[in-house]
Structures are given as C-alpha cells and as structure tokens.
Automatic annotation (TrEMBL):
This is Alcohol dehydrogenase. It comes from Podospora comata. Residues 16-351 form the Enoyl reductase (ER) domain. SMART domains: PKS_ER (SM00829). It comes from the Eukaryota.
Length: 355
C-alpha cells in the first residue's frame, strides 16, 4: 500500500491550531489478528469533530495525542488479519464510531463512554488516506451508494435511524407525523427516512432558501422558527385534529425542548439527538412535560444491528443521502471545519479522499 497523508490533532486548541497534515504510511505488516486495513475514499464531518478540536478536554473529553480525527468514513478493504470474519479484500465498508462496544451483542447501544473512546478521539479516525482499524469498527456499506454518499451514514444516518425506528412497536410508519429541526445531517437523514416510509414531515429552519430545499426533499410544511416565536404550537396546528406530531427529532436540546414538548402529541416521542443549542439555555419547566405526557428519549448513535438494518433500508428504498453543495478534498479539511463552524452547510459536509 502506498504512503499517503493524514490529519492529526496535536491538541484541543481549535482546528486552526491543532489540526496538522502529516505523512501516513501503513503496511500490512502492522495488521493484528483482529485488524482491517482500509483504503479510505470519503469522509464526512460532524459537530462532534468541532467540539473535540476545541474543547481542551472539557465537554467532549480528552483525546489520544496526535489522534486522526473524524468518525465517518467509507472505503475499500485492502487486507484483513487472521481472525477477521465476514470481511475480505475488495469489500466496500463504512465505519462504526464505537468499536470498543462489546461485539458479542449486536443490539448493545453505545453510551457516553463508548463515544468518547471512539473514532477520531481515542482511536484513529477517517481524515486520512489509510486506516488500520479493528474489524468491529467497520461494516459492509450499501451497494447502491458511492463512497462519498455512504460516508454520511456513520453518525447522523445511524442516529436518525435509531430515533425513528429504535423503539420496538413505536417505529415511524406511513401516515405518522414527524418534526425535524434545521438542516443538519441528522435532521435531513431523518426527513429522508421518514419520507421513504410514507410519513408526514414538518421541518423548521430560519432560511427561506433552505425552506425550499426542505420542501423539495418531501417536507409537507416548513416553519421559520425565527419568525414564529411559538413554533411548537404552530407545528401542532398542521397535524390532524391539532393533536401534535408522533415524533420530534430534537437536535438543539435545552434551547428547543420546551417547543418540542409543545409540538408532540400526548404519548408521542421526543428523541434528543444533539446539543446544538446553548448549554445554559435554562431549566425546562416541569409542567411543560406534565401537561404533555410523552416519552423523552436520549439517542446516542445506535447499535451494530441498527446499523446493518439501516444499510438494508437504504438499499431497499433506494435512499440517496443528501450532501452539502461543496465537496472538499483531504487537503482542504480546515476549510471544511470552518464551513461547519459558520453553519453555511446543508446536511452533511463531505471530504472526497483520493488515493
């Protein structure tokens, strides 16, 4: 395998300071029995990557010194160790963020400890030409997607899947009503998956241009949350009998939960999947929950079984993940981080990795 390049985090002082591009040279001689050597072809960014780069060991936790950042990636297997099963050279794979999760239980869900110990933080991630990873950190990718498209599924795709279909007996189905917030990766993936099963989607945004794109993707109604102060109540008015939505995919946490509680129907589900809002947005009034009895469910990524189910769903439904208009090269990773920080993107920011 030829030498390539990789980005490393020399610290957590922000991506401009801590991200460094260096040479990378991984050979098959370094393969352990449980390892897979992957030629990476694409990666995508998450808000997590920004937080890790600038948290200085705070809210995101510390890093392994000089770790390769990035958790989301797609590529081709070059070689496998002697104990690897189900994978071989030439297989197209996508990464799984939490490889330390015990492999004996495919239904096990990762918690905060597994996320912190995952790719791009404690274990080398995907912003590189080559990747040496345990077999438990990859699965076979969808046959209908390009590597750039498949690289969007690792975090936002799996998180959206877990939110919509992760509660047995309460999976989103045709005719249900779903609220998604904004145009980030999880929200757009949730919109696409919900539309694929025939659900009705209401979306929020602050941009008229993005509102049009949301409608093109299948959103039945779009609400500008900057122009509508009580947008949770506005959402409810679009639903049959004004009862509220069956599910909210909440990406902002403290700053949006009161509105999510206003939007959800009695005995509906609110999935908390992100913290894009302010951490100090105030206490959620207890009465907001008591007056709207519902399930409030935290979602961190998903299990390996859910990941494989997601791959089958994408193949069967022909879902093609939406990506940002700007595609970056490996050498342009700092610009990709900056685009995410400035929130100029739509859905997933992707990096195409050349050999």
């Amino acid at each position: 395998m030829t030498a390539g390049k990789k980005w490393i985090l020399t610290g957590q002082e922000g991506y401009d300071t801590s991200l460094q591009l260096v040479d990378s040279d991984i050979s098959t001689d370094q393969l352990g029995p449980d390892d897979v050597l992957v030629q990476l072809q694409a990666a995508s960014l998450n808000y997590r990557d920004l937080v890790i780069a600038k948290s200085d060991g705070g809210v995101a936790g510390s890093i392994t010194p000089n770790v390769v950042p990035g958790s989301d990636g797609a590529g081709m297997v070059v070689a496998v160790g002697s104990s690897v099963t189900g994978l071989g050279p030439g297989d197209r794979v996508i990464t799984y963020l939490a490889p330390t999760l015990p492999p004996s239980d495919e239904t096990a869900l990762p918690g905060a400890a597994e996320i912190v110990a995952g790719l791009g933080q404690k274990v080398d991630g995907t912003l590189a030409n080559q990747m040496l990873i345990t077999q438990h950190g990859v699965i076979k990718g969808p046959s209908n997607l390009t590597p750039v498209q498949a690289a969007t599924l690792t975090c936002s795709g799996l998180t959206a899947w877990n939110a919509l279909f992760g509660v047995s007996g309460r999976e989103i189905k045709k005719g249900d009503w779903v609220l998604v917030q904004g145009t980030g990766g999880v929200s757009i993936a949730a919109l696409q998956f919900a539309v694929a099963v025939g659900a009705n989607v209401i979306a929020t945004t602050s941009s008229e241009e993005k509102a049009e794109r949301l409608k093109e993707l299948g959103a039945r109604h779009v609400i500008n949350y900057k122009e509508t102060e009580d947008w949770g109540e506005a959402v409810k008015k679009y639903t049959p009998g004004e009862k509220g939505v069956d599910m909210v995919v909440d990406v902002a946490g403290n700053s949006s939960l009161v509105q999510s509680l206003a939007a959800v129907r009695t005995d509906g589900i609110i999935c908390l999947v992100g913290l894009l809002g302010k951490f100090d947005a105030g206490t959620i009034p207890m009465m907001s929950a008591l007056w709207r009895p519902c399930i409030v469910r935290g979602v961190l990524l998903g299990s390996r079984k859910q990941y494989r189910d997601l791959v089958r769903f994408v193949e069967e439904k022909g879902v093609v993940p939406v990506m940002d208009d700007v595609v970056f090269g490996l050498q342009d990773v700092k610009e990709a981080y900056r685009r995410m920080e400035e929130q100029k993107h739509f859905s997933k920011i992707v990096i195409k990795i050349e050999e």
